[in-house]
């Protein structure tokens, strides 16, 4: 975070989002990014407890994984049945 010209006392939500975007550009996996953010949340909670900060600027940040689209009802019941029986004939 020091590359962003900020300190633990002065970091804000907007700066942290820029940091997250830079991490994403490196190609790290979503799970790794979530782990980094989780650790930083713990660190900022500690800073609050020790009175270095009055807030946690990253408390509400959540990184979601890729959205997977599941296609449904591609074939009708009759089409599935026809496909099944034609496959059974090929195996014989």
Short description:
With 92 residues, the protein is an all-alpha fold. It is built from three helices and no strands.
Features:
single chain, 92 residues, mainly alpha
Structural notes for this entry:
The protein has 92 residues and is an all-alpha fold. The protein has one domain (2-67). The protein is built from three helices and no strands. The chain is rod-shaped and about 75 Å long. The N and C termini lie far apart (65 Å).
Secondary structure layout:
Layout: H1 13-25, H2 30-49, H3 77-91
The largest sheet is: none
Proportion of helical residues: 40-55%
The tally of beta strands, per DSSP, is: 0
Overall outline: rod-shaped
Unreliable sequence segments: none
Could you tell me the mean pLDDT?
A: 84
Total number of helical segments? 3
């Amino acid at each position: 975070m020091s590359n962003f010209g900020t300190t633990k006392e002065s970091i804000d939500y907007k700066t942290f989002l820029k940091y997250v975007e830079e991490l994403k550009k490196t190609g790290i996996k979503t799970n790794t990014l979530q782990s980094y953010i989780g650790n930083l949340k713990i660190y900022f909670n500690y800073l609050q407890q020790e009175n270095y900060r009055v807030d946690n600027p990253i408390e509400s940040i959540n990184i979601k994984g890729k959205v997977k689209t599941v296609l449904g009802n591609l074939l009708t019941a009759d089409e599935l049945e026809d496909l099944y029986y034609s496959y059974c004939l090929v195996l014989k």
